[in-house]
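By way of example, we now present a protein record of this kind:
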Amino acid sequence: MIIQYKPVGVCASAITLDVEDDKICSVDIKGGCSGNLNGISNLLIGMDIHDVIKRLEGIRCGMKSTSCPDQIARALKAYQK
């Protein structure tokens, strides 16, 4: 299933996740810190969404109350509902 998510409070403008059987197949993030987000995206492929949420939820970026990784966790939590 393709998940389209509009992140809030971060530099990234769009997050697209492909999830099959609760496993991440692909991640595409528009905007943000491209090197870091490409690395994170590659690390997430094959991971169970529950593990991703547990690892990324609550990560902050500087003084912001959220981050791109936290927004990925939020997108996956919204998908679970």
Notes: The two ends are 14 Å apart (CA to CA).
